[in-house]
Amino acid sequence: MIDTQEARKQIGTLAGELEEIRTRLLTLRGSLPPPPSETAEQDLSEDLDPASELHAILGCAVHDCLDPLVRDLRGLAEEVRSGALRLR
Predict the structure, then answer these.
(1) Is residue 73 situated within a structural domain?
(2) pTM (2 decimals)?
């Protein structure tokens, strides 16, 4: 079993690694050519072409999954640091 200081350290490290992955995903997304759906006046309810789908998946993965996860891990690490949350 690990103590709370070690847990906080590991949580902070993991959050930092996830932030690096987030940056890499956004860099990859930004390096792709703009998908046709972003440059053409097209109804977004239509099926997406592969480039548009890739842009959408990367954007949603960061916004919907990684951002909240990093925020929650940073908050958890702070709660452990401040003593508001005690791990057994």
Answers:
(1) yes
(2) 0.72
